[in-house]
């Protein structure tokens, strides 16, 4: 399936609840470079719509009918291997996440995800990455020893640590400022200091370093879409 013209990522929404469908459509359409191309309420309509709407990605809700939805994901993956699938779920159970990934899902996010994280996850999944919400541990606590806290050679200040936590959640500079009650310019200064202390190339690299230290060997995590905001 060919990529969308003019760099626009075409996204199909598959969710049961009308309110959730409308919310996801708005989130996609308000994300730069993305466009919603349909939101079927039934699984059997989804595969037909994929053929006609030709999306680059499909966002699916893993609700009460998870088994049937994952079967549809397997079918979709088999018939349209270039279409990226990102799932939104309510379960933080690693077994559920792994089941979704085994069905061909490239990204698994909590259903209350932010527009920024959803947009980044779609792009990252299309680029071949496996994306898992940073709230979710991909390994059982008893299976591996607890990871040591990430400790840069030059310690972060308390406020820098607060900003880094917001970056991990995929927040933009503007939203970080709102959440921490500081100006956007101050956020930018903190981000620059964080990158310098971590030896990171950009925001995404900084988040990757932290998440990798927390979950060795795991490719999960969230990065900000707006690396250019620095």
From TrEMBL:
Domain HTH luxR-type: 149-214
Domain Response regulatory per the UniProt entry, residue ranges: 10-126
Source domain of life: Bacteria
Xref: InterPro entries: CheY-like_superfamily, EvgA-like, NreC/VraR/RcsB-like_REC, Sig_transdc_resp-reg_C-effctor, Sig_transdc_resp-reg_receiver, Tscrpt_reg_LuxR_C
Cross-referenced SMART domains: HTH_LUXR, REC
A UniProt-annotated Pfam family: GerE
GO annotation, biological process: phosphorelay signal transduction system; regulation of DNA-templated transcription
Keywords attached to this entry: DNA-binding, Phosphoprotein
GO molecular function, one term: DNA binding
Protein name: Response regulator transcription factor
UniProt source species: Geodermatophilus sabuli
């Amino acid at each position: 399936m060919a990529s969308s013209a003019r760099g626009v990522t075409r996204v199909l929404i598959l969710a049961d609840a009308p309110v959730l469908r409308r919310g996801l459509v708005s989130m996609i359409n308000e994300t730069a470079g993305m466009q919603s191309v349909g939101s079927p309420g039934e699984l059997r309509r989804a595969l037909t719509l994929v053929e006609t709407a030709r999306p680059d990605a499909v966002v699916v809700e893993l609700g009460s009918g998870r088994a049937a939805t994952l079967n549809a994901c397997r079918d979709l993956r088999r018939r349209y291997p270039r279409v990226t699938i990102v799932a939104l779920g309510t379960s933080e159970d690693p077994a559920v996440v792994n089941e979704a990934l085994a069905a061909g899902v490239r990204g698994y996010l909590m259903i209350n995800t932010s527009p920024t994280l959803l947009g980044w996850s779609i792009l990252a999944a299309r680029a071949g990455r496996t994306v898992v919400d940073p709230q979710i541990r991909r390994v059982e606590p008893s299976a591996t020893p607890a990871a040591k806290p990430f400790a840069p050679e030059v310690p972060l200040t308390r406020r820098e640590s607060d900003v880094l936590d917001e970056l991990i959640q995929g927040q933009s500079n503007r939203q970080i400022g709102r959440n921490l009650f500081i100006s956007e310019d101050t956020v930018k200064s903190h981000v620059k200091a964080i990158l310098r202390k971590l030896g990171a190339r950009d925001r995404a690299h900084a988040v990757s370093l932290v998440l990798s230290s927390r979950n060795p060997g795991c490719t999960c995590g969230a990065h900000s879409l707006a690396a250019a905001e620095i």
